[in-house]
């Protein structure tokens, strides 16, 4: 995925980019910064990881259920489960419906490929090579990626900025858009 993003930046003749990625997108951003550092002006990683480890027993159970649904149920069932984890609050009903529709249109093959990529991703040994300005954003209440996993990421990237957003789950940008946008704008203003 990082190679595809790098190729697109080259084809569009874009200057080095401010890369912002949530979850899997954060892993793609990390990979991009490691593979083609000349293409990354700054990196913002939101609720991502260098190596995924479920955030406890409940997260491991949700992952097992997701895999079981992928094997036995229509994509709409998997999409509903994933969207409920992202947008559990009643006031997020519109975001839940939109995520369910979008994820439900994803082919099982593509979704499984993404899960395999997440499962195989391990950038821990390479994090010291990330040299671009980096912001690590963590939702304080993220039930998908443990806070200590994200904090370890911030510690491993020299000079990175670490921001924890209170009252925020895995979709921090949607849960607390004002806090997220403020942190991102302040970071980018100095880049």
List the helices and strands and how they pair.
Layout (H helix, E strand, L loop, with lengths): L1 H10 L5 E6 L1 H12 L4 E7 L10 H16 L2 H12 L6 H12 L3 H13 L13 E6 L7 H10 L4 E5 L6 H4 L1 H13 L2
Task: Kindly list the characteristics that best describe this protein.
alpha/beta, Rossmann fold, 9 helices, globular
Short description:
By secondary structure, the protein is α/β, with parallel strands linked by helices. The chain folds into 2 domains: 2-52 and 122-189, Alpha/Beta hydrolase fold, catalytic domain (Rossmann fold, 3-Layer(aba) Sandwich); 57-117, no CATH class. It has helices at residues 2-11, 24-35, 57-72, 75-86, 93-104, 108-120, 147-156, 172-175, 177-189; strands spanning 17-22, 40-46, 134-139, 161-165.
Detailed description of the structure:
By secondary structure, this protein is an alpha/beta fold. The chain has 2 domains: 119 residues, Alpha/Beta hydrolase fold, catalytic domain (Rossmann fold, 3-Layer(aba) Sandwich); 61 residues, no CATH class. 53% of the residues lie in helices and 13% in strands. It has a 4-stranded parallel β-sheet, sandwiched between helices. Helix 7 links the parallel strand 3 and strand 4. The two termini are 25 Å apart.
CATH homologous superfamily placement of the largest domain: Alpha/Beta hydrolase fold, catalytic domain
Give the DSSP E fraction (strand runs of 2 or more residues). 5-15%
Pick out the low-confidence regions. none
Name the helicity range: 40-55%
Instruction: Please describe the biggest sheet, giving its number of strands, its sense, and whether it closes into a barrel.
Output: 4 strands, parallel
H/E element string? Answer: HEHEHHHHEHEHH
* Domains, number: 2
Mean pLDDT reading: 93
How many beta-strand runs? 4
Looking at the structure, the CATH topology of the largest domain is Rossmann fold
Structure classification: alpha/beta
What's the helix count?
Answer: 9
Give the second-level CATH assignment, the architecture of the largest domain: 3-Layer(aba) Sandwich
CATH class term of the largest domain: Alpha Beta
């Amino acid at each position: 995925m990082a190679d595809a993003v790098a190729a697109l930046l080259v084809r569009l003749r874009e200057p080095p980019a401010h890369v912002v990625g949530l979850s899997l997108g954060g892993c793609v951003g990390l990979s991009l910064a490691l593979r083609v550092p000349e293409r990354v002006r700054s990196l913002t990683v939101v609720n991502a990881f260098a190596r995924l480890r479920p955030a406890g027993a409940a997260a491991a159970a949700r992952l097992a259920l997701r895999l079981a649904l992928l094997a036995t149920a229509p994509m709409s069932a998997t999409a509903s489960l994933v969207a409920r984890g992202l947008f559990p609050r009643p006031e997020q009903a519109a975001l839940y419906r939109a995520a369910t529709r979008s994820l439900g249109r994803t082919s099982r093959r593509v979704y499984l490929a993404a899960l395999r990529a997440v499962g195989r991703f391990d950038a821990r040994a390479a994090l010291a090579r990330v040299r671009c300005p980096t912001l690590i954003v963590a939702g304080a209440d993220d039930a998908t990626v443990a806070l200590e996993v994200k904090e370890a990421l911030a510690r491993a990237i020299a000079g990175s900025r670490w921001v924890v957003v209170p009252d925020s789950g895995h979709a921090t940008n949607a849960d607390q858009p004002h806090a997220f946008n403020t942190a991102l704008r302040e970071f980018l203003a100095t880049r």
